[in-house]
Amino acid sequence: MTVKVQGEDFDVGAELAAMTGGKTGIGGVTLFVGLVRDMAGGESVSAMTLEHYPGMTERQLEAIEAEARARWPLDDALIIHRYGRLEPGDRIVLVATASAHREAAFESCHFLIDWLKTRAPFWKMEATPEGERWVEAKDSDDAAAARWTKPG
Amino acid sequence: MKILYFAWLRTKIGVATETVDLPAEVRDVGALVEWLKTRSPKHADALANSTVVKVAVNQEHVPYDHPVGAGDEVALFPPVTGG
Description:
heterodimer, A: 36% strand, B: Ubiquitin-like (UB roll), 3 helices, 5 strands, 27% helix, 23% strand
């Protein structure tokens, strides 16, 4: 179970190999890789800068991961989130979950990415032809996270 | 008390962190935000709409009725946009 907050890029294949190497009980791994898009709200984006809250970021990601482990039978989980200046096509985030069963891997990966979008302290600033602007949080992200809230 | 600002709150206020001496009557997050507004016109502008100002005390998300004390690390920021 690993959380990494880093400026540098990551190698998805190497991370997958490290996660599964020697663990023959894993039946499946679900991977989500977030990329920087070149368009947002109809405007072209030439770069994106991610700010974070060192300390709290790691703590929140670890708490989110612990929640996923409590809800699903996971063999392993990995969250890598980058910060700093990124360009279109660059990888921003990797979430990977491994389980004996595919449903647990799919659902926990979906849960993790939805929850980190609303709980992990990162903020994006886009560079556009009109200048730099902070990305506003979307209600749809809150709605996506809310569906994982347990009733009661 | 150590106060941290992030994203557009930081750019509007002009500093990333500040250390403040808390008045005795400021005992929760809501009162703290109201008191911070009185520190400068930039603070007042950045904190004008408290519905978009989120707060973490000692690196945990908290509601506005959460207590605060002199030894706490308090961060103010807009809704997060990672992922």
